[in-house]
Automatic annotation (TrEMBL):
It comes from the Bacteria. InterPro entries: LysR_HTH_N (IPR000847), LysR_subst-bd (IPR005119), WH-like_DNA-bd_sf (IPR036388), WH_DNA-bd_sf (IPR036390). It holds the Pfam family HTH_1. It comes from Streptomyces cuspidosporus. Residues 1-58 form the HTH lysR-type domain. This is LysR family transcriptional regulator.
Amino acid sequence: METRELRYFVAVAEELHFGRAAQRLGIAQPPLSRAISRLERRLGAVLLERTSRAVTLTEAGAVLLREGRAALYAVEAAERRTRRAATGHHGVVLATKAGASGELLAKLLDAYAAEPDAVSVDVLLCGIGEQERLLRDGRADVALLHLPFDATAGLDTEVLRTEGQVLLLPAGHPLAGRPHVRMAEVADLPGLPLPRWPGPDGTYPDGPGPQARDTAQLYQLIALGRACVIMPESGGVHLRGDLATVPVLDAPPVTTVIAWPPHSRSKAVADLVRTATNL
């Protein structure tokens, strides 16, 4: 398969609409439809079920969407890392979600900087779920990911820590003084819906909660009494005074891992990972 065909298919699979996919790709709809049909014939598999009202993925299509994304990320990563090598850049780019693992990240950077062979570390602070994509497409060399929220399939990882989760809500809320809450209570909170985060394609799922792009926006929404959120307990450290946290007893634990591409042969990445696991 050609990368062009994969890009065509991924666009249709994400949009589930040939017209929107064609507009996104900057091509006309008829050649896009023909390209997908040729791809299906070559693979001997139906990838998309088409009706006059909807386009849906088949089981084979879901597999190709997952594998196609990984392949396209790998192509982008090869291009970016080759260009960086050609410029003589020897530093490490680390991606992490803004507002998460702050104390751990600070300790890691300080400990690594003290190593005799340390190189510069550029930190990319990103939005929810973006650090995984930055790592896969070559914009980052290593990333701090959080299970079960981020996918680590195809990446090498080392576990750094596991922690519980807390409910973040306005400081004046009646639940703010409780010693703990349960997930069912959070789901039934009147007037404080959970936020909606964008998916990989940038669109938001349907639901009553407000749209949120980053933690700064989220904290403002919570302080205004428009939302609440369940988050790792480390994210509740050094909060502003108009926010409060309450432990959630039955929330699943969150595990922070440091992740890197399995084919990486960078000594700097290896040293950074070793420093992280030694903390």
